[in-house]
């Protein structure tokens, strides 16, 4: 049950943080609003895979974190591709990279704070 709560919280936090990146960057077209379902799908997929597959596999810490970074890089490219389908823009890769980096760092901090107090 705790895993499900963490996944749901992660999706909500990611959607909010990544939407804010687009908004602050001045994006006011379809990408701003379509970033919500795009991030819901990519983040949900990422968290389900990490929680129910990656964490269950025997591996070292370094292998786990390399896998996480690899998945994050793949998500940046998937999201960039989807944003390019919506609107061709040279900055889509930059938006996706900044949004994902921010949500990975701040999202992890926020989740740890929330679930530190909620046992």
Oligomer: single chain
Helical proportion?
over 70%
Indicate how many domains the architecture comprises: 1
Structural class, from helix and strand content?
mainly alpha
Strand content: under 5%
Report the sheet with the most strands, covering strand number, pairing sense and barrel closure.
none
pLDDT averaged over residues: 95
**Order of helices and strands, N to C?**
HHHH
Q: Whole-Å distance between the termini?
A: 12 Å
- Poorly predicted segments: none
Instruction: Report the strand count.
Output: 0
Radius of gyration: 15 Å
Shape, please?
Answer: globular
Q: Total number of helical segments?
A: 4
Write a structural description.
- With 119 residues, the chain is mostly helical.
- Helix content is 82%, strand content 0%.
- It has helices at 2-24, 30-52, 61-86, 92-117.
- α1 (2-24) runs antiparallel to α2 and α3 (61-86) crosses α4 (92-117).
- The longest helix is centred in the middle third of the chain and has 26 residues, at 61-86.
- The protein is globular and about 40 Å long.
Q: What would you say about this model in short?
A:
This protein has 119 residues and is mainly alpha-helical. Helix content is 82%, strand content 0%. The termini are close together.
């Amino acid at each position: 049950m705790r895993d499900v709560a963490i996944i749901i919280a992660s999706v909500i936090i990611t959607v909010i943080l990544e939407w804010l990146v687009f908004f602050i960057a001045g994006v006011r077209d379809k990408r701003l609003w379509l970033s919500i379902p795009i991030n819901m799908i990519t983040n949900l997929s990422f968290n389900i895979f990490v929680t129910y597959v990656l964490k269950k596999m025997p591996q070292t810490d370094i292998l786990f974190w390399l896998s996480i970074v690899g998945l994050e890089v793949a998500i940046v490219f998937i999201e960039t591709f989807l944003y390019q389908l919506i609107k061709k823009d040279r900055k889509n890769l930059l938006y996706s990279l900044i949004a994902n980096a921010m949500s990975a760092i701040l999202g992890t901090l926020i989740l740890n704070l929330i679930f530190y107090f909620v046992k």
